[in-house]
Amino acid sequence: MYPTAILTLFLLLSPFSTSSPVAITDDGSSAYKALVDFNFPVGLLPKGAVGYELDQASGRFYAYLNGSCGYSLEGSYELKYKSTISGYISENRLSSLTGISVKVLFLWLNIVEVVRKGDELELSVGIASASFPIDNFYDCPQCGCGFDCDKGQVRKLKLNRLVSSI
């Protein structure tokens, strides 16, 4: 499972917002800055975010992409993003996520939570979670081809360990 897909959703929030929702649709780069402001790397969100909304009081956010998006990693994992990604964001935690899914074997599973623990990101699909080094997420993937699109290569994803499964 690739964490980039999951986290891409979360960067759409801005800690400088007021307590009411703030919509930004003309500056997608602000979504990436918001991720950084909550201690997440920008690579959780694919290239092309067009806006975001954040309710500063509750942490509820919405991230907007220019359409749905998908790509493969390592030839085995596929990620899909809906045009709207939502959830709750706080320092080091994205929860109740919707709009991001990963294909594991023959099943599509929703990524529901991302937690930063030091230099690792733990991605959860509810029944299982996996931990990845944060440096997997320094760059944003591109819809259609993921990473290294110009070279025709797929970047290998580093996996630290299986965190838990039920």
UniProtKB/TrEMBL annotation:
Keywords per UniProt: Signal
Keyword set includes Signal: yes
Pfam families: DUF538
Keyword Signal: yes
Signal peptide positions on this chain: 1-19
Coiled-coil regions, chain positions: none
Protein name: Uncharacterized protein At5g01610-like
